[in-house]
Amino acid sequence: MLRRFLVSLTLLVPLVAGAAPTPVEQDRFRFPSAVGRHGMVASPEVRASRAGIQVLKEGGNAVDAAVTMAFVLAVTLPRAGNIGGGGFMLIRDPQGKVYALDFRERAPAGSTRTMLQDGKGNRDADKATIGALSVGVPGTVAGMDLALKRFGRWDLKRTVAPARKIAETGFHVPPWLTAEVERVRPGLSRFPESKRIFFPSGFPLPTDSVWKQPELAATLSAIELRGPAGFYEGPVAAKIAKSIQVHGGVMTVQDLKSYKALWREPVRGTYRGYDIDSMPPPSSGGVHLIQALNVLEGFSMREDGLNSAINLHRIIETLRQCYADRSRWLGDPDFVKVPVEYLTSKEYASKIREQIPDRKARTSEQVAPAQVPGYESDQTTHLSVADEKGWAVSMTYTLNFSYGSGLVAEGTGVLLNDEMDDFSAAPGRPNGFGLLGGKANAIEPGKRPLSSMTPTIVQRDGQFVAAVGSPGGSTIITAVLQVILGLVDFDQNAQSAVCEARIHHQWYPDEVNYEQGFSPDTITLLKSWGQNMRRAESIGHCMLVRRLPNGDFEGGADPRRTGGTALGY
Ligand code: GLY
Predict the structure, then answer these.
(1) What secondary structure letter does DSSP report for 302?
(2) Ligand 1 residue neighbourhood (C-beta within 6 Å)
(3) CA atoms in the 13 A half-sphere facing the CB of 310
(4) How many Å lie between the centroid of ligand 1 and the Cα of residue 300?
(5) Handedness of CA 392, 398, 402, 406 (dihedral sign)
(6) Is the separation of the CB atoms in 224 and 88 below 8 Å?
(7) DSSP E strand boundaries for 311-444
């Protein structure tokens, strides 16, 4: 307690010593962070955060804690927590080496390039986002198992147990869950099993009632007993495949059995002396995060001030180019060649920077994807954990849209993803996030759809600095970018960095989304420079853990959606 008080006091010193705080100091410490001496977790749901901190207290490492939290979220945060989806995890070991784990969903073997199109060759939004054809082969269970086998101190059985117990005994339904389920009623109620689970007696899960999920508990129990085979083979796999086929999908038990999570090389960059490791393709997140940081490094961001019009303009124009490149070049590296090195080079960044006009917006038509030499031409969720031994995890996983495909496989309690919409269902036409994609991201059997997930680890001189990530579809990259700018350029504490107002641009549609919290004068100025400014409700939901130079931990849980909780001890 005393320690916690002293840590808080240290953080507040600039505010209490001497004269009134300067505006910069106010920005840095505007919101108090969670603090801890031994470890820190941050997740979008309180039970998951509690389970994670308990693992650390019992001697598990950050990987054990992250996996435990991921399974708990599959029970307590049905909009995105999952075992029926997939994602990406970055792991830092105590020596500072970072590993990237890809447990992204795959297209079933029976997939075809046009399977999500209507009769006219357009993306069919209904097929792409609701029901059986939208489901990719889930990767979460395989991913959690692989992470533990290589780096965990605990096994799968021990990390699944807390989630299974919550599913068995139930938990009190919070008001946001009732409201959310009602909002997605049209999708969920198309499927009798989903309707039965989420609308008992015809009404959404009543607030404060105890929600038990016996079928999901049984599935988790099968994983406890048989490991990944409890999910990918046997009765659970048979029920998942059957439900998908009954509703017109193409996934088979063989697709489930042959699913493999993979280790990949993280994409690496630097920003003002900090080392940045992030997720490589099939996520676009790391490539474009590093690309954007490279461009912004050449501008005097700190001197020009947090949220100044000129800095926002630079961020917008940088993102305009990044998302143009994304549309052209990014896809599953097992199927297409992605020019990661070129896109993340300082040399290409300086070319982009030279083309950004001062105080004048370009139109997206004026910005084309890179000509790469030598080349022919939400709902997601994030958790971050760090422990005192030096392990850290940044993990983003998803069902894609809120409550995924809406389809719960009968008798399993498993809500399935609609990740197939992250492919370019009809290349050149936007997906559900308005993102344009090309041939590199067309549907092919066994391929992983392109993602924007950006789990990221920041280090300096070999020391862990921060683990951060966000949900938010196409806005994930921009949210993570702005949190890193807050930490590095504006010395914000963890909570202030995740609370700061955000902007987003993704090339097309040619508009800048901005949140409440910017000065109206700044917005007016940006409009006068030709930026097409549109107010957005909220951008991202970042979960950040950070280690201070004195060894203490800070945590920041983004308040944009309910439930975010950072806990330290
Ligand atoms: N499903 C959102 C993403 O992967 O970017």
Answers:
(1) H
(2) 380, 398, 400, 422, 451-453, 473
(3) 9
(4) 32
(5) negative
(6) no
(7) 380-387, 392-398, 408-409, 414-415
Q: What's the rounded Cα separation, in Å, for the pair 386 and 60?
A: 11
User: Around Cβ 1, how many Cβ atoms within 10 Å?
Assistant: 5
Closest ligand 1 atom, residue 419 Cα: 1
pTM above 0.85, yes or no: yes
**Atom 3 of ligand 1 has which residue's CA nearest to it?**
451
Q: What is the pLDDT along the chain (569 residues), one digit of tens a residue?
A: 334 433 343 333 333 444 565 555 566 777 899 999 999 999 999 999 999 999 999 999 999 999 999 999 999 999 999 999 999 999 999 999 999 999 999 999 999 999 999 999 899 999 999 999 999 999 999 999 999 999 999 999 999 999 999 999 999 999 999 999 999 999 999 999 999 999 999 999 999 999 999 999 999 999 999 999 999 999 999 999 999 999 999 999 999 999 999 999 999 999 999 999 999 999 999 999 999 999 999 999 999 999 999 999 999 999 999 999 999 999 999 999 999 999 999 999 999 999 999 999 999 999 999 888 766 546 799 999 999 999 999 999 999 999 999 999 999 999 999 999 999 888 777 888 888 777 899 999 999 999 999 999 999 999 999 999 999 999 999 999 999 999 999 999 999 999 999 999 999 999 999 999 999 999 999 999 999 999 998 999 999 999 999 999 999 999 998 889 999 99
Q: What is the C-alpha separation between 563 and 39, in angstroms, rounded? A: 20
- Say if residues 86 and 103 touch (Cβ distance below 8 Å): yes
Q: Which residue is associated with the tokens 């059957």?
A: 242
Q: How far is CA 387 from CA 53, 55, 470, 513, 568, in A?
A: 10, 10, 20, 36, 10
Cα distance between residue 513 and residue 516, in whole Å: 10
